[in-house]
Specification:
The complex is a heterodimer of chains A (227) and B (425). Chain A has a five-stranded parallel β-sheet, with helices on both faces. Chain A has 227 residues and is α/β, with parallel strands linked by helices. In chain A, strand 6, helix 4 and strand 7 (98-101) form a beta-alpha-beta unit. Chain A has helices spanning 11-21, 34-41, 60-70, 85-94, 106-121, 153-164, 172-180, 189-208; strands at residues 2-7, 26-31, 48-52, 54-55, 58-59, 75-80, 98-101, 128-130, 133-136, 141-144, 147-149, 170-171, 213-216, 220-223. Chain A starts with a strand and ends with a strand. Chain A has two domains: 2-121, Rossmann fold (3-Layer(aba) Sandwich), CATH 3.40.50; 128-223, Arc Repressor Mutant, subunit A (Orthogonal Bundle). Chain B has nine helices and eleven strands. Chain B folds into three domains: 3-131, Beta-Lactamase; 188-274, Up-down Bundle (Methane Monooxygenase Hydroxylase, Chain G, domain 1), CATH 1.20.58; 283-422, Heat Shock Protein 90, CATH 3.30.565.10. In chain B, helix 1 (3-50) packs antiparallel against helix 3. With 425 residues, chain B is an alpha+beta fold. Classes of the chains: A alpha/beta (227), B alpha+beta (425). The interface between A and B is large, with 42 and 43 residues.
């Protein structure tokens, strides 16, 4: 089973992350302090560690250094309220694989975790398989029922994001932020998301005959394994 | 005007007035004295003339004593025993020059005939004396003024030195510096001034520190509850059996927490720029940043069917913090797209010393200088109203100048910088 370690001092945030991630098939170990984290590190071989840099009793960067020494194959994602370029560079230089600024969407965290695990655990070719669809995250190509599915780069990313968070409601805002970053904020992005989603659904439906993607009234979209 | 110039002007104009007044008084006094003396002489001579009546008889004849200085004229009726002193001029024969004289007019009856006599005497020697005295006075005055000027110049420097040091220290005083420490002064007023300034800057730096701590703590502390709201609403959305109304409510909570997070982040950024968390050095390539943003927002440009024209020479650089440069051009480009009208034009022109962003759009009917204020938004804007405040703030700390104009339905933002500082290397 894929085991994750979540190091975050704020209990509400920790619990929310676990609530979202566990139904996705992960085992989540949690730590609220630096010392708890130190103890937890030796207990399992983690696929990915999510670490908050600001801990009440120690520095998250130290944990990253220790993980790099002892668990080379473990992916590390920093979650931090600090959003300057220097903070990011420091986190990544210390050995983190990704840096996520708080507040973030759980769907985004989930996507980052899966991406980091893919990169650190499975070297070489690895595919994401969903129903009759095979997606290659590296080559950004998709094959559906044995046929190439022609998708634009953004359509591919959008589909990948939905599949990563399958069976969950993903808001238009979360999709927009995932694809365009937060510089899209303040624009009419819901219209843009809608247009892309419409094209994506059309392309999928043309090959499968059914609409895999459900519109959730007023809030977002969901891709499901059964329909 | 410099303090020294001003005080020199006051001092010299006052001295000049005093000297002129002294001159006038002295001149009239000397004149009166010399006239009195001449009058006494004339009166003496009159007595001399009267004591020899035969002199009167031969008064106008050549060779007579007093001939050149006594004129007799027969008149109809004597006005009595009166004597009148007055000034007049005498034509010097031959040269035609006039020479000042002092006259005494008196009347006598000579052989039953009333005669008017005028006895006069040249004032020239006395006038010359007065002139020489005035001349030397003027010389003294000039020397005195020059002395005042020199004294003012040197004493001034010494006296006001502490004051100028204080001014220099204040000029160098930045918003995020510790309280000023000024040297003491021998002059009480300046010492008091320095003490008060020290106290004031101490208060300023205390206020600054408090505000700094408060703002950075607030923006930081707000993030956690905001993150919790966002995550919980996302989790809530995953629960089954929600009806449409409930889903919309949750979505609204999520939307607003997202809005608040963005607001918080932008305010924190404004605060950081304000408090010089960014360096003012570095090299920024505007073309790269602009193209990246145009690429990122190209779907919005397509949806609005904007006519885009760009001139973006990639070699142009601006010396500023590159991450601030990115925020600057991102906001300008986003602003020009978001506030554009469907089918409108968007023109971006980059030149060695300026960047111009022009877009169509309705007149927003508030004064142009309000555009850069915080929380100014167009109707139905989905933004934060902070984009242009960021633009202005970044320009301010990066020594760029930004100008907004609205003309014939076109909004134009023009950012200029000095070209010579921006050669790479």
């Amino acid at each position: 089973m894929i085991t994750l370690l979540i190091i975050e001092d704020e209990r509400s945030l920790r619990e929310s992350m676990v609530s979202y991630l566990e139904p996705g098939g992960y085992r989540c170990i949690t730590a609220g302090t630096y010392h708890e984290a130190m103890k937890a590190i030796d207990r399992y071989d983690y696929y990915c560690v999510v670490v908050d840099l600001n801990l009440p009793d120690g520095d998250g960067l130290k944990i990253i250094r220790l993980l790099k020494e002892n668990q080379a194959k473990c992916g590390i994602i920093v979650i931090s309220a600090r959003d300057t370029l220097n903070d990011r560079i420091l986190g990544l230089q210390t050995g983190a694989d990704d840096y996520l600024v708080k507040p973030f969407d759980l769907s985004e965290l989930n996507a980052r975790i899966q991406s980091v695990i893919r990169r650190t655990r499975y070297t070489g070719q690895n595919y994401v398989i969903f129903r009759e669809l095979i997606m290659d995250p590296e080559g950004k190509t998709a094959v559906l029922n044995g046929e190439q599915l022609e998708l634009t780069r953004k359509e591919f990313d959008m589909l990948m994001y939905l599949i990563t968070n399958k069976n969950r409601v993903i808001t238009k805002d979360a999709i927009a932020e995932h694809i365009w970053g937060d510089s899209i904020y303040g624009t009419d992005y819901t219209e843009v998301v809608y247009t892309h989603m419409k094209n994506l659904r059309k392309k999928l439906q043309a090959k499968t005959g059914i609409d895999w993607i459900q519109t959730v009234y007023g809030s977002g979209y969901r891709i499901t394994e059964e329909s | 005007m410099k303090l020294q110039t001003q005080s020199s002007i006051y001092l010299s104009s006052f001295s000049l007035v005093v000297f002129v007044l002294i001159g006038i008084v002295l001149y009239s006094l000397l004149r009166k004295l010399s006239n009195d003396e001449l009058d006494a002489i004339l009166r003496q001579e009159r007595t001399e003339v009267l004591s020899n009546p035969e002199l009167l008889l031969i008064a106008n004849r050549a060779g007579a004593p007093f001939f050149s200085r006594l004129i007799a004229k027969e008149i109809a009726k004597s006005p009595g025993d009166t004597e009148v002193f007055y000034d007049s001029v005498n034509l010097i024969k031959g040269s035609g020059e006039k020479s000042p004289i002092r006259c005494l007019r008196f009347y006598e009856t000579v052989q039953d005939q009333p005669v008017e006599f005028i006895l006069f005497k040249s004032k020239l020697p006395a006038e010359q004396l007065v002139q020489q005295i005035i001349l030397s006075m003027t010389l003294i005055a000039i020397l005195f003024l020059f002395g005042i000027f020199l004294l003012n110049r040197f004493a001034f420097r010494r006296i006001w030195r502490d004051f100028y040091n204080t001014i220099q220290a204040l000029k160098n005083y930045g918003p995020n510096q510790k309280a000023l420490r000024l040297s003491g002064s021998r002059i009480n007023e300046f010492r008091t001034l320095n003490e008060e300034i020290e106290k004031m800057t101490l208060r300023v730096s205390d206020t600054y520190d408090n505000l700094h701590n408060f703002t950075s703590h607030t923006t930081h502390e707000i993030q956690t509850p905001l993150a919790v709201i966002r995550l919980k609403s996302e989790l809530l959305m995953q629960t089954s059996n929600l009806n449409d109304e409930q889903l919309q409510l949750i979505q609204s909570i999520g939307d607003n927490s997202r809005h608040l997070s963005q607001l918080n982040r932008s305010l924190a950024l404004l605060f950081k720029i304000d408090h010089h968390h960014y360096s003012s050095t570095g090299i920024f390539y505007p073309a790269t940043g602009i193209l990246r943003q145009l690429d990122n927002l190209n779907e919005l440009i397509d949806i609005k069917e904007l006519k885009l024209t760009t001139r973006l020479p990639s070699e142009i650089t601006v010396s500023m913090d590159p991450s601030l440069g990115d925020i600057l051009v991102h906001n300008l480009v986003k602003n020009a797209i978001v506030h554009n009208q469907p089918g409108g034009m968007l023109e971006i022109d980059l030149q060695p010393d300026m960047l111009k962003v022009v877009n169509n759009g309705p007149d927003l009917s508030y004064p142009t200088d309000h555009y850069f204020s915080e929380f100014i938004k167009g109707p139905d804007s989905k933004g934060l109203g902070l984009g242009l405040s960021l633009v202005r703030k970044i320009c301010e700390v990066s020594s760029l100048s930004v100008k907004y104009t609205y003309n014939n339905g076109l909004h134009q933002f023009k950012i200029t910088w000095s070209e010579k500082n921006n050669k790479p290397g």
